[in-house]
């Protein structure tokens, strides 16, 4: 996210400028593939490209590579522009997208939805209250904190013995300061080790995700 | 803390080595003075020195300076060596202190205790459950997270309108995974704007702190 923000700053599309126009960039989906986690003190490259966009959606790719170019992880992300007073998705403004030299396309990508928790499945639940420091410049919980809630609800021994391979996370509704959220997970330990997550406030299903894991050796 | 860890690694006193001997470095007190917070994208220096030690306590100083040497913040910290199986303070081992070329002294520093919350004072309270990611290599909550709990219990408008000038924080008892903690604060807005904090588990008073603030302009 910082790499993307650095690029925006270099192109003059600062958060401040976007906010002054009454908008904020908001992420609606991340699809993450992890081949190998970096080692402690390893030097890595963080690469990002604003790949393409249509009237409402911008598609951006991210990569983490080792110093000699080995791909460690990649991520495909969907950004939208939010009208900060209406709290609704707005059409992409040319002055906020042109500087990226991203490709315009009429096509709306049909990305897979994360699997959902089914009514009678066994789940683990933890509750969290949104903290002041969870809030970002869009006056809502920053995307990274959903990830914290989704990982923390997993049992400690699962977290110690598994590493994340893939994650598909979709953000549906904003979560605000002081909201109480419920993080639920269903764990499937079959051929593929999978966890299915949801984050709910009292009012709404705010975020769903599906993760694939491998066992640590 | 990372600067101090980097120094330890360079001297061959890695966390791994300390753990293998059955010990862990633990912080018992920080005294922080902040003159000016760094600006976004400002380059800063982080400086640390293992100043002196006696049989049980090591005293370490930290500074943050601007690129041209202006002192932005400084911190005086007390470290002890914890026996990881007994969970008790151990005598400082020569092989773990000699490489720092720190000064040996018989004197035990008498640092001021943070002010305490008095029984009938008005307080704000928030409750937290310790998260998996709060735990460090000593198998207890890392010192940084007490700070999160102490800040988060303050009202959002106080946090938006004030900046931290000084903090004296004293760690008394370990907090563990899944523990429930209660963060309490008493706010004094007189000549000096001061907040007095405590972190309690159901069993014990674990941490106290006293902060001094200035109003943002």
UniProtKB/TrEMBL annotation, chains A, B:
Domain Acyl-ACP thioesterase N-terminal hotdog: 4-100
Domain Acyl-ACP thioesterase-like C-terminal positions: 120-214
Keyword list, A-Z: Fatty acid biosynthesis, Fatty acid metabolism, Hydrolase, Lipid biosynthesis, Lipid metabolism, Transit peptide
Matching InterPro entries: Acyl-ACP_TE_C, Acyl-ACP_thioesterase_NHD, FATA/B, HotDog_dom_sf
CDD domains: 4HBT
GO molecular function, one term: acyl carrier activity
Pfam families: Acyl-ACP_TE (PF01643), Acyl-ACP_TE_C (PF20791)
Family: Belongs to the acyl-ACP thioesterase family.
The name this protein goes by in its record: Acyl-acyl carrier protein thioesterase
Gene source species: Liquorilactobacillus sucicola DSM 21376 = JCM 15457
């Amino acid at each position: 996210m910082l790499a993307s923000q650095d690029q925006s700053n270099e192109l003059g599309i600062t958060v401040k400028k976007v906010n002054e126009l009454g908008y904020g960039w908001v992420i609606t989906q991340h699809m993450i593939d992890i081949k190998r986690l970096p080692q402690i003190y390893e030097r890595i490259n963080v690469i990002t490209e604003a790949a393409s966009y249509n009237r409402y959606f911008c598609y951006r790719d991210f990569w983490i590579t080792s110093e000699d170019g080995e791909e460690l992880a990649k991520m495909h992300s969907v950004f939208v522009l939010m009208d900060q007073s209406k709290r609704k998705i707005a059409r992409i403004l040319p002055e906020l997208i042109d500087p990226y030299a991203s490709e315009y396309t009429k096509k709306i990508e049909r990305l897979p939805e994360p699997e959902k928790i089914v009514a009678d499945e066994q789940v683990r639940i933890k509750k969290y209250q949104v903290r002041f420091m969870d809030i970002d410049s869009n006056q809502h919980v920053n995307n990274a904190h959903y990830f914290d809630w989704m990982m923390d609800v997993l049992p400690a021994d699962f977290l110690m013995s598994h590493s994340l391979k893939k994650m598909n996370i979709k953000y549906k509704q904003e979560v605000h300061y002081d909201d109480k959220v419920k993080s639920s997970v269903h764990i499937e330990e079959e051929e593929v080790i999978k966890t299915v997550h949801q984050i709910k406030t009292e009012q709404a299903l705010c975020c769903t995700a599906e993760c694939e894991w491998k066992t640590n050796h």
